[in-house]
Write a structure and sequence with these properties.
Elements (H helix, E strand, L loop, with lengths): L5 E7 L2 E8 L7 E2 L4 H5 L19 E4 L4 E4 L2 E2 H7 L2 H10 L5 H12 L7 H6 L8 H15 L9 H26 L13 H10 L10 H13 L7 H10 L5 H12 L7 H12 L5 H9 L20 H16 L6 H14 L2 H5 L7 H11 L6 H22 L27
Bound molecules: carboxymethyl coenzyme *A (CMC).
């Protein structure tokens, strides 16, 4: 922790309490309230954690006002333009850009772990074929602790390292298997001569009956999607992983918890919901109707892929994805994709509407990603599993950071209790 250079004073009923403050390397100062209950006998109240820093971290920084996202200090647009996913994984996990030898060693370690235990193939068969791939993913990743119990001792640094590599290596295999299972095709084994993104495409789209050649343009677009979803500081699913692991639970169980949280439409599930919304809108002339619904307080409809807890400016990931959507569709020879037209027009209309301007609602990462994923050939049900496999490295990096943190404690929030106070039990015949 940095030295406390400033103090905040809190006055309660005429008594004053001094609270230490810390200045981060970037972002607003924080007030340390850890001793507040012991000293003043009060809790703080912050449902949704809108003003609460739950940990200190050196991994990712977001400036929501500027629309800036940095991983270990490097801007996301530079990483998306110049790096590739496994290099970004190394950066997130270990904190620096690797040398050529370090990168080769890391890539080899990940590649050597891409297969899953053969018994897992039978485990999949317990699911209904029409299960959503996210349902299968939560179950199978949770079950990894039964298959890989030689890397579940969180107190052992070697177990932690092996678990991290296994999760990064096997998530694409498991996500591809969930997809193949849902469409009734045979599982496709990984190919270790392919790069990470090409191997994922191979496992999703090849069949034993024919040769399949990965289009390098599509592989690059896939890799960029992985990079753009790799980490996003203390979002809901990452906080879920941290909270689950604060009890000492094993990494596979914790990542399964993160996947479950990601699935919701307010979080990672928004990519599927956004494409379904664009399809429902269908043509640009129906946009005003949907904008009106999004603004109507009596209608639960929200513009999916719009708005963010932290970004009060354009999400920098959405900027890269918008450009990528144009490039991918052009390279695939699709020049008049109706969904892209609807998305672009919808963005323009919303950005010029006082409701969205005043509330600072801008497109987020989920607004354009679905258009690219659909052009690549994925059904909407695979969008959130792709987000989950990309985010696994972020969850694992944050999990490792937390376990190494000497200040780590079990996460245990308090509450503002508004229920009944102590009262006597009433026998059923007297109620
Ligand atoms: N459409 C219409 N109105 C919206 C939207 C939207 N997409 N997002 C927020 N608002 C309104 C909301 O009704 C509220 O209005 P008021 O102040 O009058 O009550 C105001 O803007 C603030 O919204 P909030 O729900 O209090 O903000 P939040 O920080 O709690 O929620 C959010 C953030 C992302 C859950 C929300 O913007 C949302 O539901 N967006 C749509 C779903 C989505 O795209 N999620 C993906 C987020 S980015 C990727 C990820 O996290 O996985």
């Amino acid at each position: 922790m940095p030295e406390s250079t400033k103090k905040a004073t809190l006055n309660i009923d005429g008594k004053s309490f001094e609270l230490p403050m810390y200045s981060p390397t970037a972002g607003p100062d924080v007030i340390d309230i850890r001793k507040l209950y012991a000293d003043a006998g009060v809790f703080t109240y912050d449902p949704g954690f809108t003003s609460t820093a739950s940990c200190d971290s050196t991994i990712t920084f977001i400036d929501g006002g500027k629309g800036e996202l940095l991983h270990r200090g490097y801007p996301i647009d530079q990483l998306a333009g110049k790096s590739h996913y496994l290099e970004v994984c190394f950066l997130l996990l270990y904190g620096y850009l690797p040398s050529a030898a370090e990168l080769e060693d890391f890539e080899t370690r990940v590649t050597r772990h891409t297969m899953v235990h053969e018994q897992m193939h039978y485990f999949f068969r317990g699911f209904r074929r029409d299960s959503h791939p996210m349902a299968t993913l939560v179950g199978v990743v949770g079950a990894m602790s039964a298959f890989y119990h030689d890397s579940t001792d969180v107190g052992d640094p070697w177990h932690r390292e092996v678990a991290a590599i296994r999760l990064i290596a096997k998530l694409p295999t498991i996500a591809a298997m969930a997809y193949k299972y849902s469409i009734g095709q045979p599982f496709v084994y990984p190919r270790n001569d392919l790069d990470y993104a090409s191997n994922f495409l191979h496992m999703c789209f090849s069949v034993p009956a024919e040769d399949y050649h990965v289009n390098p343009i599509i592989a690059r677009a896939m890799d960029r999607i992985f990079i753009l979803h790799a980490d996003h500081e203390q979002n809901a699913s990452t906080s879920t992983v941290r909270l689950a692991s604060s009890s000492g639970a094993n990494p596979f169980a914790c990542i399964a918890a993160g996947i479950a949280c990601l699935w919701g439409p307010a979080h990672g599930g928004a990519n599927q919901a956004c494409l379904e919304m664009l399809r429902e809108i269908g043509t640009v002339d129906r946009i005003p109707e949907f904008i009106a619904r999004a603004k109507d307080k009596n209608d639960p409809f929200r513009l999916m892929g719009f708005g963010h807890r932290v970004y009060k400016n354009t999400d920098p990931r959405a900027k890269v994805l918008k450009q990528s959507a144009d490039e991918v569709l052009e390279l695939l020879g699709v020049d008049d994709n109706p969904l892209l037209q609807v998305a672009k027009e919808l963005e323009q209309v919303a950005l010029n509407d006082p409701y969205f301007v005043e509330k600072k609602l801008f497109p987020n990462v989920d607004f354009y990603s679905g258009i690219i994923l659909e052009a690549i050939g994925f059904p909407t049900s695979m969008f959130t599993p792709i987000f989950a496999l990309s985010r696994t490295v972020g969850w694992i990096s944050q999990w490792k950071e937390m376990i190494d943190d000497p200040q780590m404690k079990i996460g245990r929030p308090r509450q503002l209790y508004l229920g009944e106070t102590n009262r006597d039990y009433v026998d059923i015949e007297n109620r």
